[in-house]
Amino acid sequence: MRPPIASLVVLLLVVAALTVIGLEGIHATRVPQAVLDSEQQIAADTALSTRTAIDVEASTLRRTANAYPTTNTSTPASTLKALTSARKAVRGSALLDARTGKLLATGGKQVPLAGVHVSTTASGHVTIPPRLVTSGGARELLYFAEVTLPAQQVDANQDQNQTPSRTDRQWLLVVSEALPTLTTYGDGRTAQVLDASGTALATTTHGTASSAADSGLPTAAARAANGSGRGTDASGSMLGAGTDSRSTVAGWAQVASATGPGDTDGLGLVVLTSRSVPATTGAADYSRFALEAAGALAAVALLLALALHFLVQQPLLRLYLSAGRLARSATEDGPAAWEELSRPVPVHGFGELARIGRALESLRRQLLGEIGPQEFPARRGPGYRALAVAGVLVVACWSVPMIFLLNRADTTTAVPAPVLAAQQTRTEITTNRIRQSLDQSYTDLNDVAAALPGKTRAAQTEVLRRTLADHKHYRSLYLLDRSGAIALRVGGTPLRTLVHVPDGGGITTVNTSGKIPAIAAYAQVKAARGKTPAAGVVLFGEIDVHALNSILPRPKLGSVWVTDRDNKVLASSVGYRAFQSLPDAGLTRLARATQGAAGTAGTATSAVLRTSSGPSLDAAAPLAQSGPTARLGWHVVTAEPAAALQIPAVQAEQRTMLAGILGLTLGAACLGWLHVVVIRPLRAVAVLVERLAGGDRRTVLHPVNHDEIGSITRSLELTRQALAERDRAARSGHAAGPSRPLRENTLQR
User: Fold this and answer.
1) pLDDT tops 80 at residue 746
2) Has this prediction a pTM greater than 0.70?
3) For residue 601, what pLDDT band results from cuts at 50, 70 and 90?
4) Could you tell me where the beta strands, DSSP code E, fall in 384-501?
5) 187-278: what CATH class?
6) What is the 3-state secondary structure (H, E, C) of 151-213?
7) Which DSSP string do the residues of 5-43 spell out, in sequence order?
8) How far apart are CA 569 and CA 580, in angstroms?
9) Can you give the residue ranges of every domain in the chain?
C-alpha cells in the first residue's frame, strides 16, 4: 500500500512545482510577443500575395505565348503585337531569336536586356524565371516566354541553305513590367518590397504612417533574410524605434516558394511591414499567485499523506501483525504459542479494518474455546471507500477553482488591441487572395470563351481539353445552349443543379445543396460573323473546391470559412459539410456585421468572443468590393483561439487550468489506485473473515496479491484450517482442550 500513497504525495508536489515554473515564466513585456508574431504573419501573407501575383503573371505569359497560333506568314512584329497588345501591365516588350539572342522586334518602352544572357539562358528550352533589372533608375521585372514557330518557317536573316532545327524555330518573348502593386491593410501600416541589399523598390501605406518609423528596419530585414538562405519562405519580426508610449513593430518575409523551385526564388525580394503600436504599461506578475497555489497544493498533499498514514497504513500493518500472530498460535504448540493466543487482538481504525479486527478477536476466542461462532451485524458504517472519496474532494477543492475560477482572462482586456487588429488585417489579406484567385479564374475563362467562336465542335473540344490541362483548379468545363442544356463538356461530371443561362460573366454557384459546393466562373460565347454559330452560348468552368480550400490555411490564422450571402459555408480550411451554418452563433453575427448599406460591399470587422475553450479572436470581411465577385455577397470568416497566441493573460489562464486538471487527474488516479489495491481487497477480506467468525469453515480463502492484504488472507486460511480440524475432532469425540493450541494442518503445497 505504500506505492499509491507515495505516488500521490510525489505527483501532487510535482504539480505544485510545475505551477510555479509555468506561471513564473509569464511576463509582460513592452511589446507582447503575440504582437510581434502577428506582424510577422502579416508580412508572410503579404509576401505570399506578391509571390502569387508574380507566378500568375509569368505562367499566364508563357501560356499565352505557347497557345499563340503562329503561321508561315507570321512576322516578329505582328506576333509581338498580338501577344502584348491586350496586356495593360506591359511597359515594354521585345521578341528575340532564342538561338542567337538577336533582337527581332520591339514595342513600347525599351526593354533593359543588358546583363541578361538570353541565348545562354534560353538554350535547352528550359523555363526562364523572371529577372529583376534596372531601367531608368527604377527596378522592373522581366518575364520570358518561348514562341514556337511552324517547322517550315525560317528566320529571314538566317542562311537559306541552313538546315532548320528545333532551336531555329523558337522566338523568345521578353516583357518588362513594374513590380506587383502592394495592397496594405491596417491603419498606419507601411509595406515595402526590398531587394537583397535592403533598398525599397515599392512602398505603400494604409492611412497615416507613424513619424517614429525606424529607417534602419529595411537593412536589418534584408540582412535577416539573407542569413536565412535564398529560395525559402523564411520570415521574422523585429522591434524598431519608438517613444515612451509607442513602439514600432516590423515583420519581414522572403518572396520565395516553400514547396520547391519557383519563379520568385532567384529574385531575392523581401517584404517588410511595420506599424506603430502602443506599448504595454501594466505589469503582469503571477509569481505570488504561483507560490500561494503551490503552497496550498503542497499542504493538501501533506494532509492526505498524514491521513492515509495514520488511518490506513498503520492500522493495516498492525492488523497484518495480529493476523500472523493468530495464525502461528493456531498452528504451533508450546507456551510461546499459548501466550500469543492469550493476547487480545487490538481493533484499530474504522470501517473495514475495524471489522476485520473484531472478527479476528472473535476467532481468537473461538480458538481458546471461550465462545462459539459469532454473527456480525449486516449494517455497516462509513468505510475506507468514503475516505478515498473524501481525498478526491480535498484535491478537487484546490483543482476546481484553478480550472474554472482563478486567473480567468477578461475577453475585453486580455487580448491586446494590435493583436485583434492583426487578425482582422490577415482576414482581409486572405479575402484579397481568394478574390484574386476567383478573378483570375474568370479572366482565364473569358479568354477561352473568346477563342471558341467560329471553331468546329472538335476544335472547341480541343480548346477546352487544353484549358483543363493547363488550369488545374477547374474540375469541369462545359458549354450551355440557349435552353440551359449542356452542349459540350470536358472533365468531371458537373455538380450543377441550377439550370439557367445567365447574362454577362462572373462567378456564381450552380448548386444549393449536396455534399460539395459548386462554384463556377462563366462567360458569354459570342457567335462569329459569317461562320457557324457556336455550340453553346455560355461557357462554365466549375472550380474544384479543394483548390479553393487549399488557399485558405495560413499559420496562426486559425479556422477560415468562405460563406455565401446567407452565411452558409462554401469552403473551409477545416472539415465541414457543404452549405452548413458557421459553427458558432457569434461568428454568424460577426459576418452579418460586415454587411453595409444596400448596394455596398460592407467593411471588415473583428471581435474577441468567449467560447467553451477560452477566448477566440474572430474576424470577418466581405469577399470583394469590385470585380466579378462583388455582387455575390460572400464573406470570409476566421477564428483563432487566443490560447494559440503568446498573450500573458491567456497564457496564465491556460496554465492555471492545466495545473488544476493535472492535480485533479493525478490525485484521483492515485486514490483510485489505492482503492483498487487496498480498499477493495480489504472489503472482500472483511466479508470473508466475518463469515469465518460466523462458523463458515468450508470457504477456502485464496490470497490474491503478494502484499499485506495477501499475507492477512494466508493467515486467515491457516486459522480456518485449524478451526476446521478442531471441529472435526470435536465431532469425533477427540476435541482438543482449550488449554492446548491446535497443530498446524498438513495442507502445505
Assistant:
1) no
2) yes
3) low
4) 474-480, 486-491
5) alpha beta
6) CCCCCCCCCCCCCCCCHHHEEEEEEEECCCCCCCCCCCEEEEEECCCCCEEEEEEECCCCCCC
7) HHHHHHHHHHHHHHHHHHHHT-B--SS-HHHHHHHHHHH
8) 5
9) 187-278, 417-646
